[in-house]
Amino acid sequence: MRTNIFSLLAVSITLLFVGCSPAQEQSAKNILEDSTKQNEIMDAISNDPQMMMNMMTHMMNNAHAMHTMMGNDSLKQQMMGKRKMMMNMMMQDTTMCKMMMSDMMGMMEKDSTMCNMMSNMMMANQHMRNTMMSRMHQKGMKMGQPDKQQQMHMHQHGGMHNN
Length: 163
What we know:
mainly alpha; 163 residues; 11 helices
């Protein structure tokens, strides 16, 4: 009987070590090699709003992901095709609209070429030009006489270029 207990204990300890060994752990890479598991994971991420936002944040912060997306003409066309849907979402959700505009403004601060392009687009749009001029007038700002903050901003971006 004592031999059976020691044998059972030895087998149990062996199974415990074998069951908990690193060889049994599945790495993310190994799991993703299985196309069925990969699709299950993608579906889980796509169907969970928080996970989807996390994934989008990871992609936007990953240089390789951004380079791949920007180099994929088909993906860019699909995204541009969804533009009307995105505009409707922005119109219905002011938080999303503010977030997207804030992101674009941040991008303009970092990229003078993009800033100049966007400012030229806004100036070419009669409604935007009139709105901005009206707001400047309300704040006591005069065209051609930028305040100190505007002067610093324009200096950072090499002035406003008319392209």
